Structure formats: structure tokens, C-alpha cells
Amino acid sequence: MTRTGTSLARLGLTEPWAEATLGELGWWVGDKPADGAAEIMWALARSPDPDLALRTVERLVQSASDRSALDAALRSDAGLRGRLLALLGSSTALGDHLVTHPDRWHRLASDAPDGGDPCAALLSAVGADPAAPPAGAPGGSAATLSGAEAISALRTAYRDELLVLAAADLGAVGEPELPVLPVEDVAAQLADLAAAALQAALAVAVGEAGDAASGEQAGRLAIIAMGKTGGHELNYVSDVDVVFVAEPADQATTRLASRVIRIAGEACFQVDANLRPEGRQGALVRTLDGHVSYYKRWAKTWEFQALLKARPVAGDPELGAAYAEAVAPMVWNAVARDDFVADVQAMRRRVEEHIRPDHAEREIKLGPGGLRDVEFAVQLLQLVHGRTDESLRSPSTLDALAALADGGYVGREDGANLAASYRFLRLLEHRLQLQRMRRTHLLPASDDTDAQRWLARAARLRPDGRRDVVGVLVAEWMRNVRRVRRLHEKLFYRPLLSAVSRMSADTARLSEAAAAARLGALGWASPEGALGHLRALTSGVSRAASIQQTLLPVLLDELARSPDPDRGLLAYRRVSEALATTPWYLRLLRDEGQVAQRLMRLLGTSALIPDLLVRAPEVLRLLAAPTAGQADELARDPAEVAASLRATVARQKDPDGAAATARSMRRHELLRVACADLLGVLPAVEVCAALSSVWAAVLQATLDSVERAISEGPAPARIAVIGMGRLGGMELGYSSDADVMFVCEAVDGASDHDAVRYATTVAETVRRRLASPSPDPALVVDADLRPEGRSGALVRTLGSYREYYSRWSHAWEAQALLRASAVAGDADLGRRFLEMVDPIRYPADGIDAATVTEIRRIKARVDAERLPRGADRTTHTKLGLGGLADVEWTVQLLQLQHAGDIPELRTTSTLEGLQEASEAGLLTAEDAAELTAGWTMATRARNAVMLVKGKPGDQLPRSGRELAAVAVAMGYPPDGDPGVFLDDYRRTGRRTRAVVERVFYGW
């Protein structure tokens, strides 16, 4: 590389034609700047893109009529150099505009007269009188230009004003001595310019309407700015959100509003009127009374949130002021609405849905830690506290944030930091949009270092000695995003603690009334009760209280997203008090972020989990994030769990201690499975299998301990426990009893009488020890499916069972045996029992028509007589339409009819039975899928009811927070409508029932 090339490269000029161009301009001679041009070269070097700036300034010089004057001004005017060269290196679109209108460079000179009122300039450009009443008002001015001529004039005038503003904004980039224009001032001037363009567009529309109507103008029309325009914080390129108010709202004013949208859209920017009542489907123009009536009767909370920034900007000023005065009281009372939280959450969800997954990490506006997070948080705090504090009622995000800090609703340091991050993000947004005057909120990709370097230079970033300018940009971006990501902790929750505890002086101080208002807005039904819990958790000067003050803002944020924050906070207090002496508890929550996040979700959803957690706190450790390549600790192998349980209980010599140990380990596993279930770690089939495996292990361990305690010598009998019902099918739920039958066999010459007496004592002891009072879900061993039911012997020998089933068994008993499996006790005896009953439950020739009729009759009677009074048959998970009983009886009927000929049907599992029936051609694939979906939905819903309510129940809640919690437990979004879950449940039930009616009932 030549010496000259090296010098130019140091100035940022990398194109091969740069030296020749500089020579033609007279700014470079040999290997150094020409006389008097050194300052131009340094200003060019400071431009975000020196090559682009040089190329455009060459075009400008060639098109300028006063080339020598431009050259002289650049040599002598530091302000012009800084503004012009920074602008040309930042915006190709405005550079093209300047080349097209080369005389406009004079407006960037330091001695250029102040541009004055942009509204007057734009009105004059279209031939309207700036001194006359505004267009849209009675006797308002109308433009003399119309059609394409008016649009062209307005476009040029708008770009002229934009050119001057952008140059002032960028001036300090090209010349460090020029003042830095704060980003909020730029945004405010852009909003004023947009308002001026709307007024000019309205003047053109009125003029065109007058021509079309022979001089007769439309009625009064006011344009209300919404969004960033209304908030005085507009971007360089953005849709301008508006609402039209008219008197009268007739076809003439509607056409007038439509013309404004068209004219402004073709000349300046897109006008978006979709924030009007009823959105796109609503009338474009309404009267003031029409607007007020809509907002009083139909508007949702998010619409009042949008009205926070409503501001009259064009048209009839009296009508605009009347609109603002009418809607303001409704805005500041929106927090009292019953659906406030749900609507705000829905608004957040809609925002998040707009993010493309591959853009989430680069989204300045909508991404995590982006602009919308700041704006949303500030607006929510305004709605909560602005009802009683008028100082917060500012449409500007930064002004409102400052007022929140001044009023003590936000800590001063937090408010200042958040405002700084907001300004930085807005600056990046402005620079990106200026480049080509296109709407964008996306940072350059990580592999596009040229674009990142340009953005960093345009944002006035400089290398810091350790990193180049690209590294500084990335570091600043991440720092500010992380700071904004702590938005809710900083703005919503930490000030709540100041109302109930001793916190540092720089923390925002809320009164208890203000804290209660904020909690109510964030979803707590009993804010006073929540404050009491916070006071109890943070009171005192202990280390635990200090850790709680650090933890609670994060925990409250998670709880606010749960279906029942009140219950969750109460449960957290109970757990914290119960584990107050557990040294690792708070440390685990503090150091393992996922543990705290998961715990709050569990506590805010389930009443069962906190009851178990205070007695099995060690399960908390399993909530930690799995290490790379490792399975989640919540998902353990059931066989491994069962073996560990039996081994632990076997070490207990005392039968009471053995039973207590079995219950304790069962509690631990019940809690683990419940957590895994609610967190989506285990699917429904594995949940049922895990619960069944634990139950079987408890039975085995307790049986072993009782036999050891009772038998002083050799036992006179071997005993097997046969699982029936859902235990036999490995399909237990959280609230299921253990249906069993006890079978024995005499050994070592003992009589059957002695064997039965011994086995009965063992069985009764097992049942009694497991059923002893406990705060855990009951351990009920139900033997009512034995021969002759409750009136029959609790234990029979294998021969007695054989004789009974061969002589006296009924169809329902054969059906019950379909799910029989050996779950505990002597494995060989259990196997021989099953071999003995196989011919009974799998009859070789199937069952006759009379037996089929009897089974159908029994099922119909069960449905009619056992459904509880007042139950909703469409949402009863067990006996309802398409519920568990419908699917299970259908599978069992097919097994009784065909398992004798089709060995694959010989399974105790409902889902396996459905699959085998489909493969055997007894069910179509579609019918099998519908029955599978119905069984799975009902099983999950039944388990969810137990998890949410903490007590058994087969009926889904009809409404309220319990229904919302059940929906969340089923995997539906916490901020969604639980009615969607109900609709899905009923739809699945209807489809399942239709198959049952055809296959089981033969209808």
C-alpha cells in the first residue's frame, strides 16, 4: 500500500476512487490534505461512513449551482462541516434529497436563520394560510394545491424539515464542538413535524373536498395523535397512529379523513387509524359522543392504555380538546376495572407474539429488555398510581418516568438508570432508521461487522482502549438490555417492600395504600393480605430478612404470572417459616435462579405442593436446572425409586417405623412427581406409572415389615397382593385408592385355615398401618373388588379363588380381573394367580350377546346413579361424557370379546389396549386416536384438579382462579383465557363419547 493509501485508510476512506475524488474536490494533494482542507478531512473521518459521505458530497458539489460557495463554507464553517458530512455518512435517503435539492445545504450553515414553525412551513408549501383558522375547523384554511402537485410539495417540504433536524441531531458526530441534541428533543420535534404534516394534509384534503363539492366543505374534524406521536416521542420512520373525531360523522367527514390518510401516506409517512374504536372493523370517523359511548361500554383496558398518549394535533382545536377532556377520566379509572390484569397481560402477549424467534436477540423495540418493556412498565405504573396522583399523567415515557421517581414510586437511581437505557436504545433506533429512511428496529447481525461499525460511529461510540468500536457497541447493547430486563424487579416490586420493611434510603418509598394499589393492579385479589405476608417475610434485621428483601422482587414477578398470586405468596410464607431453620433453603433460592422461578410457578398453581413441601423440603434441590447432558432430576426411573424405597424401609426393625418411613418416602416421591407434572417434565402416562410404582413399592415394603414383625418362626403361608383397577393397570392418579386382592397359599404342611388366618392378620395390619392418620394424601388399601365384596373374606387361598370364579363369578368380576396384576408379595404365587384367572378374563370364545347387554346395562346404571348431584356431565373427568369410565369400559368390552383369540389384547393398560385393538382392526385408527385423546385429557385434568385443590375431585371447576390454575396445570398459558381449556376439554369429550356410543353401545 502506498503512503497516500495508508493516510486515507487512517481517515476511514477505503474505496480505491477516494484519492481521485478528493483531488477533484481540491481537498487532497499528494499524500496530505490541501491547504485549508485539513478540517474538512477530519470531519469526513468522523462521519459514520466516510466513503458514503465523500461519494454523496461529490454528487452534491456537482449538482450545486454555487459550488465555490459550498467549498468555501465547508472550509470556514465548522458547524456546516460537522452537520453536513455526518448527515451524508449516515443517511443515503436524506443525502439523495439534498443532491436533488442542492440549494438546501444553506439551511445547515451555522448562520442559517432559524427554520421557525414547521407547521407554517408545510402549510405554506401546499398553499394554505398559516395565519387562518386550522383546516377542519369552521372557516378553516384550505390548500390551493391539490392532487399530485400538493403531494409533491408536501413531500419536499417535509424532507426539508427532516433534513435540518437530522443534521442537528448528527452534528456532534461530525464535529465534537457542536452541541449534542438529546434524543427526547429529537423525538419531540419529530412528533411536532408529524403533527404539522397532518395539518397540511388536512388542508389539502379540505381544498380537494371544496373543489369536489362546489365550495361546500365537510363538517368539523379533529385528528387525535396516539402512540409515539401523541407522546411527543416519535421515531424518524414510524407509522403515525391517529383517531378521527368529527361533528357530524357523516360521509363527507369520512371522505375527508380518508383523504388525509392517503395524502400523508404518499407524501410523508403511513397513517394508522387502527387504534380507533373496534379497530379496523370500526367506523373511521365517529362523533365525540360516539367515542365516549364506546369507551364507557365496550373498550378494553389496553385501549385505555393506548389513550394515555392521546393528544389533539390537527383539525378543529376545540373538538380535539373536548375529546381529550372527555376520555381522560376514563383512562385514569381503568385500573379499577375487573379485567384490568387480564387485559394488560393480553397486551403483553400480543407484543411478544410479534417477535420472530430469529430476531429476538436483536430486537430493539419488542425484544426482551427492549423499548416496549420500558414503555409498558411506565404506562402500567401510570395507570396504577396516576388515578390519585395527577403529576404522573404525562404522555411522554421519559417525563412520566421522571415523575414516578420524583413521587417515590420508583427509586431515583433506578429511574435514572432506566431512562439512560431508554435513551440509548432510542438513539440506536433513530440511527438505524435514518440510514435509508425505512422503519426498522433490528440491530445488525453479529457477523455483519461493517454495519455494526457504522451504527457504533453514528451513535457517537468510541473505542475504549480494550475494545474496538464494534466491541463497545455490543457491550453497551448487552449492558442496557440486561438493565432493562430487571424492569419488573426495579419498578414494580422492590418499592412494595419499602412499605412494609426497613430498606435503604435510596429505595423508592411507597405508602401502604400505594403499595396495595400496585399489588391489586398486578393481580393480587387481597393486596392487604399480601402486604401482611411481605411484612412477615422481611421484618427484622436478620440475615434471612435481608435475603428475603433481595429475593422477593424476583419472586413476586414470577408469582404475578401465576394463576393465583395470593395463594402462592401465602404458600411461600408458610414454606419459608417452616424451613426457617434449614440453612440451605434461602441460599438455594438466591443462588439457583431456576429453583426460585419453578417454585413460584408451583406455589401459585397448586395447593397440594406446599402442603407436601413443608414436610419434604429436600425435593427443592431437584428443581435446580439440569447440568449439560444430564436428565432433569425430577424425572427419575420408577424402578430405581421403588428399589430405593423398599431397601430403606427394610432397614427399619419396628413395623410402625417401617410404615412411617414408607409414608415419608411416598410423600417425597409424590411431591417429586407432582412438581415434574406441573412443570411439564413428565407426560401423563409416565406420571401415572410413577405414582403406581410408588404405591406398589409402599405395599411391598409394608407387607415385608409386617410379616417380619408377626412371624416368630417360619410363616405358615406365602402371600401375594394383586393390584386391581388403576393400580393393576399402572394408571394411578394422585387421589386414587389402591384396589387390591390378597391371595395366600399354605406352606410347610400348614393347613389352609392357618394360612388364611395368618394372611388375614397380615393384610389387616398392612391396611391399618398405611391408613393411620397423616396430613399427606390418604393411603387407602381398598379390597372391595374381592369375591363377594365387603361381605366376603379379605384373604382367600388360590384354590378358593379358583373355585369361586369357576362357579359363582359374574360378568363384572371377569371385567374387573382384566386389570389384575401382581404388585407385591410372593411373585410366583402372584404369577400362578394370574394364570388361573386368564381363562376367566380372556374367555376363549369371547362373551355372548346377553353378557354384552348386561355390561352395557351396568355401565348405563353406573353413569346414572353414581354421578354426583349437581355435577356437570360435560366436565366430570370420571363419569362424564367421554371421561375415564367411557374409555376404560370400551377397551374392556373389546378385551372380553376378543382377547381369547388375540393375545396382544391381554394387557392391563388402557392405552396399550387401544393401540392393540387398532392394530387388530377392532378400531379404526381415527377412533383409537379419539379414545386415546379423551383418556389422556381426562386423566391429566383429574390429576390437575387434585394438584390445584389439594383434595380429590373429579369435577372440573366452573370458573374463577381454580379453573385458571387447572388450565395452567394442563399446560395452557397463565395469562390466557381458561375458557379455551374448557372448550378444548368439552370438544375432546364430545368426540370421545361419539366413538364410545358407536363401539361400546353399538348405536
TrEMBL record:
Tree of life domain: Bacteria
Family annotation (InterPro entries): GlnE, GlnE_rpt_dom, NT_sf, PII_UdlTrfase/GS_AdlTrfase
Its EC number(s): 2.7.7.89, 2.7.7.42
PII-uridylyltransferase/Glutamine-synthetase adenylyltransferase domain mapped to chain residues: 346-492, 858-1000
Positions of region (Adenylyl removase): 1-496
Cofactor(s) it depends on: Mg(2+)
Domain Glutamate-ammonia ligase adenylyltransferase repeated per the UniProt entry, residue ranges: 147-324, 597-835
Keywords annotated in UniProt: ATP-binding, Magnesium, Multifunctional enzyme, Nucleotide-binding, Nucleotidyltransferase, Transferase
Reaction catalysed by this enzyme: [glutamine synthetase]-O(4)-(5'-adenylyl)-L-tyrosine + phosphate = [glutamine synthetase]-L-tyrosine + ADP; [glutamine synthetase]-L-tyrosine + ATP = [glutamine synthetase]-O(4)-(5'-adenylyl)-L-tyrosine + diphosphate
CDD domains, alphabetized: NT_GlnE_GlnD_like
Region Adenylyl transferase, residue ranges: 504-1003
GO molecular-function terms, A-Z: [glutamate-ammonia-ligase] adenylyltransferase activity; [glutamine synthetase]-adenylyl-L-tyrosine phosphorylase activity
Function: Involved in the regulation of glutamine synthetase GlnA, a key enzyme in the process to assimilate ammonia. When cellular nitrogen levels are high, the C-terminal adenylyl transferase (AT) inactivates GlnA by covalent transfer of an adenylyl group from ATP to specific tyrosine residue of GlnA, thus reducing its activity. Conversely, when nitrogen levels are low, the N-terminal adenylyl removase (AR) activates GlnA by removing the adenylyl group by phosphorolysis, increasing its activity.
NCBIfam families registered for this protein in UniProt: PRK14109.1
Family: Belongs to the GlnE family.
Protein name (record): Bifunctional glutamine synthetase adenylyltransferase/adenylyl-removing enzyme
